[in-house]
Design the sequence.
């Protein structure tokens, strides 16, 4: 396992009466691509600003390479930030923008010139030295903002929804670009976004946050396939979240029908939530399914058909490459390992978090 | 067509009270009493008396503008960093005096600064030396700064509030301390506001004759006073107009300068 680079210990932060972060604990390993994912107001940007030194936590410590940097001002920290709306210096040329941090550190002119050339090449914008930021497109400006940060050779790069202002196609291109940059530079990335697809595409580790609490930490596969609660399941991708009863190990009763599953240790006759991804719902002949239902909606989505099936009083979302016309009677079947059992939320906070979505 | 009709009242106003007077000033300025064309009135600026008045006017206006800038910039920075509730109150306090008549405010300073005025009475009571600045250039500068300071504060304040806080954060993030951030980022980005403020203080200061009359006595003649006297006392409209044209050229130059720098229209907020 790689070394821990940053450690956030018991961080709390509130603005006025509003608690934004409540006893947050998180560590980030060296050379990791970690994404803070959550809806607006979940505390992800505040976490990033505390790391960057733009906010002070009310409680808790920020440990960077073993040193407590909680009270260290932003300009003394060994990390750099890429801001949401680029935040380029509009009165300077691209070269001056990129050189800013190096000039502050009194690097020699030849060193700075080399670095500018290298950084522009890295972000595929050779020859842009003399241009002004206003004459660049959003995607180009964002790449300059990244170049401006990485020439300082930070150990840690913080990215605050850097692709939020770009259109879909450009955003996808930039995602691959960021992964490439991270691999070439070997810098640790902490990335903040509310876009679950972005998080799944790029991250080594995803931290799902809501209302100042970490809901789940894990690899993209784990977060998607084994969400720990209804909030995570709902936030990451489409899902069917259904109240159910765990009858005993490996057997769950959903909407009156018994389904085999693979989860154990929830106890007997315990109320739980189950999440079933729409692509895991199999539509079969009525007599072959565990539950019978009728197709109520059908939309062609390109890769697959999106259908809604009314069965046992619940509207099931189904993704399938097989089309079933509206009105068709179908049976619903789910493989045991595709049923993810989750504990019912216990605290009121988590309940509220769920309702919020 | 209908929408164009709506602008007619203003066009009429514009013609009657701006274009025609302007035309008359130019006409008077380039003719003599017989109505013949001459450049004598304009060249009259070169005479010792007139050029001295113009020189003093420019000097005092520049000093006033500089003092305004030095006072206004820190104030504007403090205002820009306040939260909304606080700053609207402070801005109100700041603008409040502007709602009072300009002439009244200047006359109040006259009463305050007089040899046996309020300030000197207090100083005398405290056995401190009297302040003898009435009827000196210092009093005129004081009057100019007092009257025109808000015109410097507001454009600078506007340009400062337009700076994205993350741009300042970016500078700090890249290692700049408070001073470097100010010199390399905040100050350059507020230049449009500074230029606007300079124009909005320098132009009225250059042309004022009320402040110099009330606070400078009749000892210090600014170019504004000279022009006023030509119209009201000597009755030489031709010379008055000629000198006005010279002054207008100075103002025009200043306006062009500000138009080049102030593309965002910081000064249009007043």
Sequence:
């Amino acid at each position: 396992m790689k070394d821990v680079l940053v450690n956030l210990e018991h961080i709390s932060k509130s603005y006025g009466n509003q608690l934004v972060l409540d006893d947050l604990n998180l560590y980030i390993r060296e050379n990791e691509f970690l994404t803070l994912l959550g809806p607006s107001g979940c505390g992800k940007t505040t976490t990033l600003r505390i790391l960057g030194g733009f906010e002070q936590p009310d409680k808790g410590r920020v440990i960077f390479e073993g040193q407590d940097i909680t009270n260290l001002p932003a300009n003394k920290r060994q990390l750099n930030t890429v801001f949401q709306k680029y935040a380029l210096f509009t009165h300077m040329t691209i070269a001056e923008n990129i050189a800013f941090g190096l000039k502050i550190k009194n690097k020699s002119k030849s060193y700075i010139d080399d670095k500018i050339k290298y950084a522009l090449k890295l972000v595929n914008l050779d020859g842009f030295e003399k241009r002004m930021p206003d004459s660049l497109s959003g995607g180009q400006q964002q790449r300059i903002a990244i170049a401006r940060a990485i020439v300082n050779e930070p150990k840690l790069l913080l990215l605050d929804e850097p692709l939020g202002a770009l259109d879909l196609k450009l955003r996808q291109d930039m995602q691959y670009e960021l992964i490439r940059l991270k691999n070439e530079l070997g810098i640790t990335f902490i990335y903040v976004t509310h876009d679950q697809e972005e998080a799944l595409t790029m991250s080594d580790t995803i931290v799902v946050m809501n209302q100042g609490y970490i809901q789940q930490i894990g690899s993209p596969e784990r977060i998607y396939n084994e969400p720990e609660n209804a909030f995570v399941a709902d936030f990451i991708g489409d899902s069917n979240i259904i109240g159910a009863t765990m009858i005993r190990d490996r057997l769950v009763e959903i909407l009156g029908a018994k389904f085999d599953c693979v989860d154990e240790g929830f106890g007997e006759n315990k109320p739980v939530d189950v999440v079933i991804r729409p692509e895991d719902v199999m539509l079969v002949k009525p007599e072959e399914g565990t539950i019978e239902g009728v197709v109520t909606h059908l939309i062609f989505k390109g890769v697959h058909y999106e259908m809604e099936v009314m069965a046992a009083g619940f509207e099931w979302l189904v993704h399938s490459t097989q089309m079933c016309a509206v009105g068709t009677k179908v049976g619903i079947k789910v493989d045991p390992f595709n049923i993810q059992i989750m504990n019912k939320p216990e605290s009121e906070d988590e309940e509220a978090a769920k309702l919020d979505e | 067509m209908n929408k164009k009709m709506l602008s007619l009242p203003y066009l009429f106003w514009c013609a009657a009270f701006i274009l025609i007077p302007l035309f008359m000033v130019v006409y008077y300025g380039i003719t003599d009493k017989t109505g013949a064309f001459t450049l004598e009135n304009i060249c009259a600026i070169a005479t010792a008396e007139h050029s001295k008045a113009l020189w003093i006017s420019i000097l005092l206006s520049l000093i006033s503008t500089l003092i305004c800038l030095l006072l206004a910039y820190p104030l504007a920075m403090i205002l820009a960093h306040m939260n909304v509730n606080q700053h609207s109150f402070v801005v109100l306090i700041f603008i409040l005096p502007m709602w009072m008549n300009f002439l009244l405010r200047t006359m109040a300073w006259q009463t305050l600064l007089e040899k046996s005025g309020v300030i000197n009475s207090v100083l005398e009571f405290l056995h401190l030396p009297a302040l003898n600045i009435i009827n000196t250039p210092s009093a005129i500068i004081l009057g100019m700064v007092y009257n025109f300071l808000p015109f410097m504060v507001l454009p600078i304040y506007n340009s400062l509030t337009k700076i994205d806080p993350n741009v300042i954060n970016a500078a700090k993030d890249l290692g700049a301390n408070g001073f470097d951030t100010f010199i390399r980022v905040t100050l350059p980005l507020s230049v449009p506001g500074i230029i606007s403020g300079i124009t909005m203080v320098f132009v009225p200061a250059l042309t004022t004759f009320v402040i110099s009359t009330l606070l400078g006595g009749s000892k210090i003649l600014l170019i504004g006073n000279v022009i006023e006297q030509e119209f009201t006392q000597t009755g030489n409209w031709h010379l008055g107009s000629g000198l006005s044209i010279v002054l207008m050229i100075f103002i025009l130059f200043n306006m062009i300068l500000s138009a080049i720098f102030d593309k965002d229209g910081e000064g249009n907020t007043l």
Observations:
- Residues 350-357 of chain A have pLDDT under 50 and may be disordered.
- The longest helix of chain A spans residues 168-185.
